[in-house]
Design a protein that fits this description.
2 strands, 125 residues, globular, 4% strand
Length: 125
């Protein structure tokens, strides 16, 4: 794990506090943040659940702003940090629902950088 991965997760949680409810569980020790597990277990699940609950505009009531999270991730890909790119590709995009599963249509909402990386991470959808 790099410090960039931890900083990336902390920035995400600062912008979307509901994603950080269980953040402390993803520290193996004070020096090791398990970014891939955090994104694969917490972030992807919550973003997809928020999308399924409100696929229209992105946020509803107390729901997580799934569209805002996607925009955040898209912007982070533009930073060019390879460790962050790997976390997004393998632990978020690769974990999105498969075709035919509930919430799969979220892939149609991926902006430019996310859509490009999704096509690499999951070339068959």
């Amino acid at each position: 794990m790099t410090r960039a991965e931890e900083r990336f997760a902390l920035d995400l949680v600062e912008s979307f506090p509901s994603l950080g409810e269980n953040l402390d569980f993803y520290y193996h020790d004070p020096e090791e943040f398990l970014a891939h597990i955090f994104f694969g277990v917490e972030v992807t699940r919550k973003v997809v659940a928020a999308y399924v609950a409100n696929p229209g505009d992105g946020a509803g009531g107390d729901q997580l702003d799934w569209r805002g999270v996607l925009n955040f991730l898209n912007e982070c890909l533009r930073s060019g940090d390879e460790a962050v790119r790997t976390v997004i590709g393998t632990s978020f995009l690769f974990q999105l629902p498969l075709p035919g599963q509930e919430g799969y249509a979220i892939v149609e909402q991926l902006d430019d950088e996310l859509a490009r990386l999704f096509s690499v991470a999951r070339p068959n959808g």
